[in-house]
What does this fold into?
Amino acid sequence: MKLKVLVLFVCSIIAIIVSLLIVKANVFQAITTIFTGSLGDARKLSGTIKEMTPLLILGSAVYLALKAGLFNIGAEGQYTIGACFASLAMIAIGGPVGIIVGCVVGVVCGALWALPAGLIKAYRNGHEVITTIMLNAIAWNLTKALVSGPFKGKDQPASSTSVMPATSQLTPLFKIGELEIPQSFVVGLACVLVLAYWLKKTIAGYELKATGANATAAKFAGVKTKQVTIKAMLMSGGLSGLAGALQVAQFEHRFYDGFSTGYGFDALGVALLSSSNPYYLIISSFFFGVLNKGGTALAILGIDKGITTVILAAVILMFAAIRYSKKEVTNG
Amino acid sequence: MSFAVSMQQISKRYGTVQALDNVTFEVEAGTIHALVGENGAGKTTLMKALYGAMIPDSGTTSLNGNPIKFQNSADAINQGIGMVSQHYGIIGELTNFENLVLGSEGAAVLNKSTMSERADRLASSMGFEFNWNTESSTLSPAGGQKLEILKLLWRKSRIMILDEPTAMLSPQDADALYDSLKQLASNGATIIVVTHRITEVFEHCKRVTVLRGGVKVADHEVTNVTPSQLAEEIVGGEVIQRPKPVSLAKNSVRLSIENLSVKGEKGDSAVKHVGLQVKTGQLVGIAGVDGNGQRELFHALIGVAKPTSGMFSFDGNQWDTETSQTRILEGLRVIPEDRHEEGIIEEWSLFENSALGLQRLPAFSNLSKSTREEAPVMAEMFGTKHGGLDNEIGSLSGGNQQRFVAGRALRINPQMILAFQPARGLDLNSTTKVYQEIRRACNDGACAIVVSFDLDELLDFCDRIVVMCHGELSEPRPEEARDRAAIGKLMVGAG
It folds into this structure.
């Protein structure tokens, strides 16, 4: 296992260097720019934490589904739907109550958006990858239509809801100079910890993992695997919706067309990289946060931010190749 | 004396395991020679060496006095060696004729008339009858075995290796098979039978070679050795006696099955109107040839298949409408047929696997504490060899996985035990121990149903034997309850 980690580390570095060479960047300069741009000072570090926050929650969502043997590509759509409807509730109700109701709305809407995929998987064996991709497309277009029409704020020129009253906005938990720790970041960390405990210690978590690892054996062990599948999709969708709601409350303060910048997809990478240990979600979402934030600084060097996506993809591919390498079959 | 097969000082090492250690194996021409030993003793490896499927590290082989060196199986086939493996190489979608000639067509275009003439001649010389144009999927296990033998004759094999040829056959079919083999031997063919059934050795073979742990431990004329002596040589020590099963069954019925029908994988009715009552303390064995509905019956009792008609109840509680979970809570314990798919999660540790199927029992309410406590006990029960309970269970040998799965099924309050081929992959003494433990649970008030394709095993341990054939359950008449021949007839539907 340790060897694997080492191999992964070395390969990642090679991937990063090669990617940068391909775009004819000065490798050393580019890497230092990514790091100074993301961790260089308190303000930049705050930006990295901001990038990391939705990834923590969405990563937990995707990780949970993965443990049940489901690849929830729909986190993006569930996040978008959750954010859209949560923002309405927060604007309409206002104040701390608005935030709480908004989060509940986000969870419920995210879960409902994942439900069809769970039902189709459980009862018709339709692949969740296909169904969630389709649900993503519906989510984008539906929310786009809603904020262009019925949900559009009167004072807004573009497709957007109105801005939430200041009382509905989450303030940073604390602020030291320019370093800000958002409240939703703490919620994200809590999600990871609770998820880790739930999977390790509870019988429901045990049955979910059994279903993901070997559904037939789980069935023989008396696990209601169909219900587990549906429950896993609901929980995963609910968490994604929560991420959307908190993103509105903490950072965006409104919902608009093009709200998500692809956090739901980054979360797939976050979850895959954390592999068999949920605590690694914290490390991998930090890694993604650094690249997301540091990537913007690359523009100064004339390198497109997209290169960070290439780097991430290369790392994930390499990781998958190492982590999921087929065990040699020994025969006695 | 000239030997048809003479293998001298064959050694083969796989990684750290010495699979064969200086094994010398000699077979007289025109005889049936038995090769016996436990799982992992090296029988299959030795036969692979003879068949050219494996090249030994050292040692020499000669056929009829001529030294030979095979690079692959094709070389061996050209020298007249043929092998029938335990899982037949017959493709169900092809016709019997196509299967017969497969790989040995002799020309790019099949000349069907001359070829089928030869096929008929071969079949009639053995007293077999085949409809050449029907699909092989319709063959019975015995028919498949016959076709395999014809395939060897088609390839002009003079030395035939048969790996556990009777594993899937009823006693009558097994006897018929040996009659055919004797006929072949009397015509000069040399036949090597790999088997674990000691009775077959004494009834049908001339010589027997015993392997244990990759070493040849004995080589006898069958007439110079007794069954118990041979069993001790196989085990390498004392053989646990198998006293005649005594039933302590009470009159109260625990499991009651009425008119149960279940559909099979292909939508056919695999279990047809089965009725069975199992009493407190009873160990019922279901005899039968593989694929006669035993699997589907078990799946319905466990709750992973839905019956199409009928009902069953345990202690008066209707079970067929209940979830598997409820049945487990009321005492259902399973040693499943396919332990890889149904019994374990390979990439999990033994600790994690110890709760599988028991996770909702009160004994496992504190999951991590209970698995820490129970896993060592379950492993200890039948002496599972493992490199640490933290290791993936997939890293264990099949036999050790089976020991662990059996230990898990019998550890916590078993009331209704369902065991499908519980001895699969186990050595003689472990088999006895598993059955003894099932018996002990029955004596404490549980009841059990065991499916096995080995009638002798069931006769050794069960106090009641029923037979499944074509999805129907039948029971021998009381005076024939332990009669091998009578049960064998029922197994092929000729009762």
Summary: Strands of chain A lie at 172-176, 179-182. Residues 95-124 of chain A form the longest helix (30 residues). Residues 55-294 of chain A form one domain.
